[in-house]
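3.2 Worked example (two chains)
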Amino acid sequence: MLVLFLLPLVGAASAPARPAAKTDTLRLESSVVAMGSAYSVAVYGEDRTRMEEAVDAAFEEVHRLDEMLSNYKPESELSEVNRAAAERPVAVTPELFDLLAACVKYSRESDGAFDITVGPLMKVWGFYKGTGRLPHRAEVRAALDRVGYRNIALDGANRTVRFARSGVELDPGGIGKGYAVDRMIEVLKQYGIRTALVSASGSSIYGLGAPPGEKGWRVQIRDPKDQSKSVAEVYLKDESMSTSGNYEKFFRAEGKIYSHIMDPRTGWPAQGVLGVSVVAPRTLDSEAWTKPLFVNGRAWAVKHKPAGLHAFFCEDLPEKSCAWLQ
């Protein structure tokens, strides 16, 4: 979870309406629940009406994406792929095709540690609409038979998706929020907004421009073992940061902590890392890469982290150790 610090300015959105000079800086904040997450937006500008229109349009965009990417809604485009792609090629929109192609690329570059087909594992571990459970090893092995990005066949000429076997299931949990944040930022830009902060559940965030008088949007990375403390501070200006931590969703069983961050190659939750934050130009990239860096660990990240990304690790060694990746 990221702790957001926003500086109050003259003309806050909650203040009573009053005549204002054109040079007055206004601030507007709002939030909505969509795609199973809370999305919040803070914008600065001079035209209150235009700002409100921009924020409303950004929220309409995230609701549109929910209709495309939800694996909870049977009528969504992604759900149709999950139902039918094992039986026949399923034609999809260019937008969904490009997103799935990006997911396959992340999988290849991360040695399979990122995998959008992790859905069967999330279900067997109880993280699909639940808080988690310890499955039998036979259940994990059965789920692993249906997991693997190589089971996704993409036909670029016809923009179709086909699964190589039955039971494969796409799960947008590792990519959906980041993509939605990027799309919301693009909508705000179309309305002339040049200074904004968009956050999805505090774990995927983009800072557009910088608040007046600041060098960027100030964000603190929380201590994985103490939510009242922070371990690092970042100023975001026209860039994103996403965080994955073992404290986000987990359960305890047989004296161990099992988090929702799954290693799709073994079928078991990743161990050893407490949290990873990634700073990148796009939220799509920062969210996608937090998972394989978390799963593969610091040593792998040193050799394989893509250029242009900055990563902050908190590890159990066995004592907590937090630092930026050099």
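3.2.1 Second chain
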Amino acid sequence: MRGLANSVSRITAMARARALPLPDLNHRLTPLGRFGTNPGALDALAFVPEDLRPGAALVVVLHGCTQNAAGYDHGSGWSRLAERNGFALLYPEQRRANNPNLCFNWFSPADARRGRGEALSIRQMVAHMVKTHGLDPKRIFVTGLSAGGAMTSVMLAAYPDVFAGGAVIAGLPFATANSVPEALDRMRGHGGPANDRLSSLVTGASGHRGPWPTLSVWHGTSDSTVDPVNADAIVDQWRSLHKVEGQSERSVVDGYPREIWRDSSGRAVIEKYDIKGMGHGTPLDPGGDGDCGKAGPFMLDAQICSTSHIARFWGLADETVGTAKERTGTKARPAEVRGGVGSVIEDALRAAGLMR
């Protein structure tokens, strides 16, 4: 970790940042109601298709800083995909009382460990959804952006017995930061455990010894808020657990590089997408055949639908649903979302850390 003076100067700069306004949306997510003791004091919303069949899958979706559940669903298009393919959605939602800028507290051991705080609240929500709607406990998945992506890493490590798979978008590995200054350094790609220690953080998080959740990792190569080195660290944290430490398979999907690691049976257990030229956000394809989401702050038109690709990786969506249109010419380079995004998220981390 870098010196105290450096951290203090960053914290001083953060105080000048202002949160982005939340969208005012008329949305179809509904409150979950009482779901347990809720030690993390989170809110919860859900989307359940009207004709949902017994034994359907569940996807947990974690929004990023300055976002809420309805805004992230509107941008990402998850409820449209869930309605078409017959699975349920759970949206944990942060409260401003916990974090003024609505970040999940992924860097706080009090909230980011098995049986504690926000992580336990999310686990309780999952149990409530499974019981209430007769969902398949073996097909529960989790995804999130930024702080939600880092919290996805937390949930996969803390509850690998609960989740069949996860997808981390512009996030960070589990338990590599345990304070605000460490969080800021990891976001910039500085410090953290050596690669050979990353997997031990996961194995030490629960008594679970496998099988392990599958993993999809997405990151923009021009992300100046969470350095792309974190995507490699997330993959490294899980490769030895899946025993896939050899060479990956490389391909190009919708114009972007994709790597796949397969286990001894040939099953794809880890995938990683490098979204060339994209900044900090969720890659979407609003103009594609699948009508994938709506562009906005942190929801970026990259001409690739991460939502549908992730769902297909988990076996939840048909191969023909949500694919991008064939386009001629050169793929447009996605633009970084600017206007103080990095400082907004840093301010949220600082505020959340001081709250505890």
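3.3 Remarks
DSSP finds ten helices and twelve strands in the chain.
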